Amino acid sequence: MTDYVGAFLASPKDILHYGRKGMKWGQKIFTKSDDSGSSKGKSEAPASAAKSGGSGASAPAKRPPGNIQDNVESSSARYDRLAGQAKAGRASDMTEQDLKFFNARTEALAKINKLNEEKPSWLRETATKVVQQSAQRQMQTVADTLADKYIGDPIKDALKGAAKKD
């Protein structure tokens, strides 16, 4: 069984530390390539080198031609291609994966458009609702008062009179 309390109370020299001093969670530290040619950490130059505007030595290396990312279609390009295909009446030629992607993207764009939609009459609609609710509350108060005065009081008096006769 592990002694957690003992490990907690151990001196700082007994605790193993990983990473580097000042290292943040989820961030890789940029290091230059080692002698074997494999790079460690980020593949791009750190932000401080990019901001300095120095010589081209600190700029990230260009991708070699024929890289697989050159042949990958972007999400917006794929959506545009599928939208054109759907408008041309060739939706039946789409794969199931393309249909799912197209439908999900269309729904997401519709939601975004609805959020960004301007409603110039929102103030009028809100004011109308507030006035209606206010009027309902006021009318209910008046109805309760009248019912209590003209119905409740005579009934109470009649009950008091009946109690006095007994």
- Which value, in Å, is the CA radius of gyration? 37 Å
Class derived from helix and strand content: mainly alpha
State the helix count.
Answer: 5
> What is the terminal separation in angstroms?
84 Å
Q: Topology as H/E string?
A: HHHHH
Can you describe what's shown?
The chain is an all-alpha fold and 166 residues long. Among the domains are: 74-116; 120-166. The chain is 54% helix and 0% strand. It has five helices and no strands. The protein has helices at residues 4-9, 47-52, 75-87, 96-116, 122-165. The N and C termini lie far apart (84 Å). Residues 34-57 have low confidence and may be disordered.
Features:
166 residues; mainly alpha; 5 helices
Break the fold down into its secondary structure elements and pairings.
Elements: H1 4-9, H2 47-52, H3 75-87, H4 96-116, H5 122-165
Quick description:
The chain is mainly alpha-helical and 166 residues long. The chain has five helices and no strands.
